[in-house]
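Data availability (excerpt). The following record was deposited with the supplementary files.
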Amino acid sequence: MANKRSNLSEKAYKNLKSQITTHQIPPGNKIVEEEIARNLGVKGAYIRQLTLRDIEEIYEIRKVLEGLSIQQAKDKISSDDLSRIEQSLKDCDNAKTIKEKYQKFILSDVILHN
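Predicted structure:
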């Protein structure tokens, strides 16, 4: 039973990852658990703890997507917007504590994506 659940979890993971990376699920769309379960012919959700490798993959994907976003935005961004982004990144670098760095990073992320 555990092996069947593991295989099903892996299938769901690969399916969802594929849909996200191929934009079948566009950025910003809500992921509906019931819809995923229905597509896979299962009920319920099984959640597992992220591994270090999972986290590394997430950041690798994000790095690629962020790079692509920058390429697409570089000719459209105003100098004021660019200045705000640069200042928010400097604020991150100048933060004194980990908590402050995290808060500044979140603020920079919001500024960058708006």
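Summary of structural features: The helical segments are 2-21, 33-40, 52-73, 79-94, 98-113.
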